[in-house]
Structure formats: structure tokens, C-alpha cells
Automatic annotation (TrEMBL):
It comes from Candidatus Aphodocola excrementigallinarum. Residues 8-77 form the Ribosome maturation factor RimP N-terminal domain. It comes from the Bacteria. This is Ribosome maturation factor RimP N-terminal domain-containing protein.
Length: 83
């Protein structure tokens, strides 16, 4: 699933100078998360996360049948120390 999502969203994000760092579909407690980590120079601010979410949401909706359970979309920044 992670690779399908990555292939779907990487180019549209790149067109807005947003680097896709990772995609992880994980279960935490009773909740599934689709966690997408992004980066952008010089930094990722709230507006960048909002823009990325607006790009990602309609694309992910095309894969709705691929997900077995409902999930929370979590778009977050990569910390500079994690490179």
C-alpha cells in the first residue's frame, strides 16, 4: 500500500517543491494512520502541510477501495535531524 500511495502523490507534491520523505500505513492502538512525511526548503510550515493535504486527499480518495479500514491521514514534517 505504501508504494502505491507514494507513486500516486510524489509527482504532484514535487510540482509544489514539496519533497515526499516517507509513506507509512500503520496501526496504533485501534486506529490506522496513513502517515506522510514531507520536507521543503527552507522549512515546512503549517501552510505547507495544509497545501500537501489538499494535494494528497483527492488522490488518496481514488484508492479508497484499497484500504480495508478507515484511517487518519497524518501529514507531518521531517525533522532536519532525521536526514
Amino acid at each position: 500500500m505504501d508504494e502505491k500511495v507514494k507513486k500516486l502523490i510524489e509527482k504532484p507534491l514535487s510540482e509544489k517543491n514539496i519533497k515526499l520523505c516517507s509513506v507509512n500505513y500503520v496501526l496504533e492502538g485501534n486506529t490506522y494512520f496513513l502517515r506522510i512525511t514531507i520536507d521543503k526548503e527552507p522549512f515546512v510550515d503549517v501552510d505547507t502541510c495544509v497545501l500537501a493535504t489538499e494535494i494528497i486527499n483527492p488522490l488518496i480518495d481514488t484508492l479508497e477501495d484499497e484500504f480495508d479500514d478507515s484511517y487518519v491521514l497524518d501529514v507531518c514534517s521531517q525533522e532536519k535531524g532525521d536526514k
